[in-house]
Amino acid sequence: MRLISLLFFLTLPLGAADTVQSAPWTFADYERFNSATFRLHPPVLKVMDRAEMDVGLLNAAIFFVTNTEREKHKLPMFQTSRVLTASAYEHSRDMALENFFSHENPNDPSKRTAWQRMEAKGLKSGERAENIAMRTTNGLTYLAFADEMVKLWMNSPGHRANILNRNLLFLGCGVHACTCPKFHVYATQNFASVVP
User: Fold this and answer.
1) Rounded CA gap, 154 and 63, in Å?
2) What is the pLDDT of residue 196?
3) Residues 174, 101: Cα–Cα separation, whole Å
4) Would you state the pLDDT for residue 1?
5) Contact 42, 142 (CB under 8 A)
6) CA angle 87-89-92, nearest 5°?
């Protein structure tokens, strides 16, 4: 099922968060924030721009918004994983650049399933799951886009079950924009109970 929202959202007035300048997000930055403090990080209030998109920041926004859902349900917070982030990013990239939307990659038998993709990164045991979605940005900020993406997943029983699965403790989020005229962003979440 393709998860696409056609809603429009208000953004901050020009001159507010649009003027925020910051270094691109790095994996080490996850240690500096939790779900609450991340929402106060000025760059997440900036409207996404295809030419200057900070992919790492959008990955982080989806990660922290997802952890907010875990917190609401009194579940352990997800920990980040480089392995899962890399696997998720590569699947989003493949979907965006090869024009498909599926948990199965139709173009590469070695990356056909989520399990194959995670195993290729060294994750060979434990419980695993994957969520995918795609939508246009519609002028949203990083945080608003992440809020809407996670809302779509939480309104879908299978995706919601992955987010709220008590056995899944690690999460990697990966996004990639298509090269199409519309600013579509593909997002993948890879979950695991253990990581290498």
Assistant:
1) 14
2) 86
3) 14
4) 40
5) no
6) 110
Rounded CA gap, 196 and 182, in Å? Answer: 37
132 pairs with which residues across the strands?
A: 188
Question: Pick from 156, 68, 174, 65: which is nearest to 114 by CA?
Answer: 174
- Measured CA to CA, the distance from residue 101 to residue 95 in angstroms comes to 6
Residue 63 in 3-state DSSP? helix
Distance CA 188, CA 93 (A): 9
User: Is pLDDT above 80 for 106?
Assistant: yes
Q: Could you tell me where the DSSP H helices lie in 99-196? A: 114-120, 142-154, 157-163
How does strand 79-80 pair with strand 170-177?
parallel
Give me the mean pLDDT over the 58-80 stretch.
98
Task: Write out pLDDT tens, residues 18-47.
Answer: 444 578 999 999 999 999 999 999 999 999
Sheet order of strands, 79-80 included? 79-80, 170-177, 184-192, 128-136
**What is the rounded distance in angstroms from the CA atom of residue 4 to the CA atom of residue 149?**
9
pLDDT at 181 (0 to 100): 83
Q: How buried is 182 (Cβ within 10 angstroms: 0-12 exposed, 13-18 middle, 19+ buried)?
A: exposed
For residue 56 the two structure tokens come to 């790492």
How far is it, in rounded angstroms, from Cα 190 to Cα 193? 11
| Structure-token pair, residue 184 | 């579509």
